[in-house]
Each structure stands twice: as structure tokens, then as C-alpha cells.
Specification:
- Strand 2 and strand 3 form a beta hairpin.
- Residues 144-149 and 152-161 have low confidence and may be disordered.
- The chain is 43% helix and 8% strand.
- With 368 residues, the protein is mainly α.
- The strands form three sheets. Strands 1-2-3 form a three-stranded antiparallel sheet. The chain has a three-stranded antiparallel sheet with strand order 6-7-8, with no helix packed on it.
- Helix 1 (30-41) runs antiparallel to helix 2 and helix 6 runs antiparallel to helix 8 (251-265).
- It contains 13 helices and eight strands.
- It folds into two domains: 7-135, DNA polymerase, domain 1, CATH 1.10.150; 180-319, Intergrase catalytic core (hpI Integrase, Chain A, Orthogonal Bundle).
């Protein structure tokens, strides 16, 4: 039996920038390596590169199992790839039959993410002379499909853009939020001021967790109550995903930062705001795993399931419910496109609908 296994390999070049590549029984998979190296060259996050590598691994395993060439495909082959992804791993060889009642291992969202990675892979190679026509992407009029917000005169001067030809239909997901009562319980369960400051920062300034972990002391202007998000390389691998920006914050958040410095940070010599406070790593920049350990502990102790990104969503949702203009929310969130803000937060939950009906006189206030 031919060995079709494809492995994701971690690469650490001389410049110290972590990367990932793919190998099979014959060695390096060159098309994937060229694409992943390109992502590193344009300074995509190592986590992004790793995610693309894992998604492409599935694709090249599928090609090997079917005896297909990556640069000589038909559209129906992509349909077969989707069906293959939806099979349990033990059934993908075709040796084991799958019952109709068998649980599908990958969600629609996960399959669409893998197809998005595949689309980017083929767009890269199309620009380098691999002619696949409209196999993966096609030209469409400019603008985001289905975006609920469009700028004034959006119909003038828009350029055609490429969009994926194959994507599974999925229900629009509502951005998860953490309520005020839940937030208070989470803060009460924190043992360290540092952890309370981190959670509060995410919910009251809307920072991504990578942006928070990359903060330096110079980025917090206590006098102006302002935080600067700056793209830079960090020792802990944290990254600011989008363009730099300034975020105004409330005075209580700055006072919490001051309490953290005086009570816990003390004489530690580090440029980073968030650091380890115990053990051999004391004084070093706090890492992603440390944050996720904190999140898991708080979940166990409070029963509240949340992610750092849910706190960021809570910030944006709060601003929009208070009537802050979407253009301002876009800037504060660091979204490159206002359509991203509109698509992500153009949702109403049942309580939003209830308040709107009460305001309009269509529902008794006692029901709100």
C-alpha cells in the first residue's frame, strides 16, 4: 500500500522566525513550501502559517489517495475533496464503510476554512504561472458579498475581485459576548491583579489577545488614558494582527494598571506589561499558553465558558448597542475594512429585539 501520509514540519530558520512546511514519503512538498514561505515573507502570524500548513496537509493527503496532481484538477475533484473531509479519518481510505448515522467529524465552518486556505494557495500559484482557470476563484464585482453596510457611491469605481467558487452554506454565527454579571464573576475568581487587568483590558479596550501580550509600558499613556497598539516582533510570539491604532480607555482601567505595577510587578526589569510573576520564567513576557491556562481555570471555577476573543466581541457589541458609529468601532477594533465590522456585528439577539419593541411601543415595558 502506498504511503500517502503528509506531515506538518516546524521550521526555525536562522533569523528566528518560526515557520511550517509539508513533507511526504518523497520529501518536501515544493508547491506547499513555496506558498508557506511566501506567507512568512509577508510577515503573516506563525499561528496563521501553521493553520494553513495543517489545512494543506489534508488536501495533499487527499490528492495522494486519489492519485491526483495538484496542478491538473477538475472542479468535481474539489467536490470529492469536501466529501472526503466530511468522512471520519478511519473511513477516508475507502476500506471501511461509513453508516449514514455516523457523526461528521468536521463542522461546515472548519471545511470552509480549509477551502479558504486552498483558495489562497491556488491564487498564489496562479500569479506564478499555474493556469487553473476559474477552478477555485472567479472574478466578481467589487465589494463584500452579502455585506450589510456599503459606503456612499459604493457602486462607482469598484474593482472586480476574486471570490471562491466552492463554499459550503453555513448559518451566520452571532459573535459571543460576556455579560456584565459574568465579567464580575470572572474578575472575582482571579487570584492576581495582573489577570484582572488583562481580562478588563480585553473587554474595555477590545484588544486582541496577541495585541495585549505584546504591549510595552510605553504603549500605555496614563495621563491621556490611551493605549497604543503597535505592530512589532515580540519575544513571546505575540502579534498585533492589523494596523497600529490608539484606543481611549476609562480612568478605572488605568488605575488597575497602576495597582498591578505597584502590588505585583514591583522591581521586575521588563519592557512588557504582562509578564510571568512566579517560577523560573518570572519577569519574562507572558505567553499564549499561560493565558489559556488562566481561561481554563476560570471556566472550571465559575462555570462560565469564554475565550479572550469573546471579551473583544463584548467590547464591540457594547459600543454598537450604545449607538457608537460603526466607522468609529472599525477604527477601535483595528478592522482593515468597515465591511468586516458590519458583517461581524450586524446581529440582534432576543434582548436587543425586545428592547427595540418596547421603545417602539409594540411591547409592554414590563416584558423587557
Amino acid at each position: 500500500m502506498t504511503d500517502n501520509r503528509v506531515c506538518v514540519q516546524r521550521v526555525l530558520p536562522a533569523d528566528g522566525v518560526e515557520s511550517w512546511t509539508l513533507t511526504d514519503a518523497e520529501g518536501l512538498i515544493t508547491p506547499a513550501e513555496r506558498f508557506l514561505a511566501h506567507l512568512v515573507a509577508i510577515e503573516r502570524s506563525p499561528n496563521t502559517v501553521r493553520a494553513y500548513a495543517h489545512d494543506l496537509r489534508d488536501y495533499f493527503e487527499f490528492l495522494g489517495a486519489r492519485g491526483l496532481r495538484w496542478d491538473d484538477l477538475q472542479l468535481e475533484d474539489l467536490g470529492h475533496f469536501i466529501a472526503w473531509l466530511r468522512l471520519p479519518p478511519v473511513a477516508r481510505t475507502g476500506v471501511i464503510a461509513v453508516l449514514p448515522s455516523a457523526e461528521v467529524p468536521l463542522s461546515v465552518a472548519t471545511v470552509n476554512r480549509k477551502l479558504a486556505a486552498l483558495s489562497s494557495f491556488y491564487q498564489f500559484h496562479q500569479r506564478h504561472g499555474v493556469d487553473l482557470g476559474d477552478l477555485v476563484t472567479q472574478w466578481h464585482p467589487g465589494g463584500r458579498s452579502g455585506a450589510s453596510w456599503k459606503p456612499f457611491l459604493a457602486h462607482l469605481g469598484t474593482k472586480d475581485v476574486r471570490r471562491r467558487t466552492v463554499k459550503l452554506k453555513t448559518n451566520k454565527r452571532v459573535a459571543p459576548v460576556v455579560s456584565g454579571e459574568q465579567m464580575q464573576r470572572l474578575l472575582a475568581a482571579c487570584d492576581l491583579i495582573r489577570d484582572r487587568f488583562l481580562l478588563t483590558l480585553l473587554r474595555e479596550a477590545g484588544l486582541r489577545i496577541g495585541e495585549a501580550l505584546g504591549l510595552r509600558h510605553e504603549d500605555i499613556d496614563a495621563r491621556r488614558c490611551e493605549i497604543s497598539v503597535i505592530q512589532r516582533r515580540n519575544a513571546n510570539g505575540a502579534r498585533a494582527k492589523s494596523f497600529g491604532r490608539q484606543v481611549p480607555v476609562a480612568a478605572p482601567l488605568v488605575r488597575l494598571f497602576s495597582d498591578y505595577l505597584h502590588a505585583e510587578y514591583g522591581p521586575l526589569d521588563s519592557d512588557y506589561v504582562f509578564v510571568s510573576l512566579a517560577g523560573e520564567s518570572r519577569g519574562r513576557a507572558m505567553t499564549y499558553p499561560a493565558v489559556y491556562r488562566l481561561v481554563r481555570r476560570l471556566h472550571r471555577e465559575t462555570g462560565i465558558f469564554f475565550t479572550p476573543h469573546a471579551l473583544r466581541h463584548s467590547y464591540a457589541t457594547h459600543l454598537l448597542r450604545r449607538g457608537v458609529a460603526i466607522e468609529i468601532v472599525q477604527q477601535l477594533m483595528g478592522h482593515a475594512s468597515i465591511a468586516t465590522t458590519a458583517d461581524t456585528y450586524s446581529h440582534l439577539d432576543v434582548e436587543d429585539a425586545r428592547r427595540a419593541l418596547v421603545t417602539a411601543g409594540c411591547l409592554d415595558p414590563g416584558a423587557a
